[in-house]
Specification:
little secondary structure, 5-stranded antiparallel sheet, binds zinc ion
C-alpha cells in the first residue's frame, strides 16, 4: 500500500536497509528472537504514551473500542473498529506506521504501511497499556448503549 504523502515508508531513515540482514543465521543476532521478522526501524522506546485513552477522542468527547499506541511518538489512538479510527488517522498525517496494542496483555505490533503483524517487538516506555480497570469500549460514560451496532 502506498500513501503518496505519507513520507515515512520508502525513503525514511533506515528503511530496513539491511541493518543486520535477514537473520542469515550467523549465531549472534537476535537473543531469543527467531519468531519471524523483527519490527522495522522507526521505533522510539523512550516515547511515553500520550495518555490512557485515545488522544483525539478525549479532546472531542468521543469513545473508542480498542487502543493503539504509536511506537514512534507515543500517540494513543483508537483502532479501526472504533468510530473515529484515530490510530489510522495518525499514521496518515504523520507517517508513523508502527503501533503497538495498548490493550492490557497484548504486546503485538502492527505496521500500517505494510499490513504486517509482529508478535513481538522492543519494550516501549511504560505504561505498556491502558489501565486494566478502564473499560473497553471506553471511556466509561461516553459509550452509547447501542455501541455494538456501530462496530465495523
Ligand atoms: Zn479516537
Ligand atoms: Zn506517532
Amino acid at each position: 500500500m502506498k500513501e503518496p504523502d505519507a513520507g515515512g515508508g520508502t525513503t525514511g531513515p533506515g528503511g530496513g536497509g539491511g541493518v543486520t540482514g535477514p537473520g542469515a543465521g550467523d549465531g549472534t543476532t537476535g537473543p531469543g528472537g527467531g519468531e519471524g521478522a523483527a519490527v522495522p526501524d522507526g521505533v522510539d522506546p523512550t516515547a511515553v504514551p500520550s495518555g490512557t485513552g485515545c488522544l483525539e477522542c478525549e479532546q472531542a468527547g468521543g469513545w473508542w473500542f480498542h487502543l493503539r499506541r504509536c511506537a514512534r511518538c507515543g500517540h494513543v489512538g483508537c483502532c479501526d473498529s472504533s468510530p473515529a479510527r484515530h490510530a489510522t488517522a495518525h499514521f496518515r498525517t504523520t507517517g508513523h506506521p508502527l503501533v503497538q496494542s495498548f490493550e492490557p496483555g497484548e504486546d503485538w505490533f502492527w505496521d500500517y504501511s505494510t499490513g504486517e503483524l509482529y508478535a513481538d517487538g522492543p519494550a516501549l516506555a511504560p505504561p505498556a497499556s491502558r489501565p486494566a480497570d478502564q473499560p473497553a469500549p471506553g471511556p466509561a460514560g461516553r459509550v452509547p448503549a447501542d455501541w455494538a451496532r456501530t462496530l465495523r
